[in-house]
């Protein structure tokens, strides 16, 4: 669900109305995470996408595309998820200081996704490396790739454009609510600040079935041959 460990357990437990205690569910979830997370594999097209973006430029400005990782995952879970060699290769596209995780001390407590803070901190990190004569990157110039619903909401709240690439099962579950997801208006976790949310069909988010279907030209991105 894209929510940090403890919150994830509570939200899912309430939603599923499980016949076991929260404590038992949390314990069994941790056991399964330790077992399954090391088997995580990159999404189809992820490595090619990052490789292309790392070489790409803005068609209008001619500037390189800057990359950052923004995840609500805590460090321990992140290390488990990225333990496979093919997953570690993806991390090479992100400089270490441009990887913002859920337990980063600069992320205010309780302000992980769907709050926008992680994405705004990632943007701040990118802008900190820009020269004094260059204009800072604006939220409206950022493009977020997300697989989770609350991640889409976080990106929208940050004022960024969003590409939602859901797991097929999640896409099927929300097939009648795609427009709400893209606007960040599912209300999965209520945090207030409704003014940050998008509007239905405002053109600031789209859903694609795979990263392999990403249209670079649509977003003004030029990839050298």
UniProtKB/TrEMBL annotation:
It comes from the Eukaryota. InterPro entries: HAD-like_sf, HAD-SF_hydro_IA, HAD_sf, PGP-like_dom2. GO terms for molecular function: phosphatase activity. This is Predicted protein. It comes from Hypocrea jecorina (strain QM6a).
